[in-house]
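Note to self: keep these together.
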Amino acid sequence: MQRSLTTLSMSDGIVIIPTYNEIENIESIIRAVFSLRKSFHVLIVDDNSPDKTAEKVMELQKEFPHKLFLSVRMKKSGLGTAYVHGFKWALERHYEYVFEMDADFSHNPNDLERLYETCHFNGADLVIGSRYVTGVNVVNWPLSRVLLSYFASVYVRMITGMKIMDATAGFICYKRKVLETINLDRIKFIGYAFQIEMKYRAYAKNFNIQEVPVIFTDRTKGQSKMSGSIIKEAIFGVISLRFRKFFNKL
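Structure:
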């Protein structure tokens, strides 16, 4: 009987969701992932949220044992470091597909299955849930932010040579071998530049990168973590990445 229960709790995919003060969204996003036809596990990487996000996750772990996991860090340390922490956690375990997803429903959990299928059946090593591969699929963003995001990807394509339409996207599926090949200890950036850096390192190693169209909907609950320093890091980080690759120091 124990073997049967263990088999039922297994999944080849883990969804990493970084959180900081997401108490308004966390239960709903977890339940949405677990309601999917495809079985996914979830790892919440919480930066010691004052609003007790982690406590809510611990409460839900009683309902979802063996498939909902929590790692609490001592302080808010940036999106990139949260994902690297989650990647290393996933690589120490049996997962073949590792996902990035936001907690605020800007990424539709239903699209996880499409990302998985593109990796599992269509030969992709890294799949991007793309806002811009079929036009501009963004809901509830002011025009200024849409333009900033869209032209950031144009800028990245110009500097790096990557043919990716949505270079700053944070809705991703990685095959295990991509994360094993990239030296995660050398990841430098923490904001949007982190998303660009991960894609660029995969591109530099000739992995098959594909984009599937998704509709991005801005959060309706909680506060955005966007800041001027994150934008600045992305602008100058792209140039830094290109130079490091040119001098074979990537």
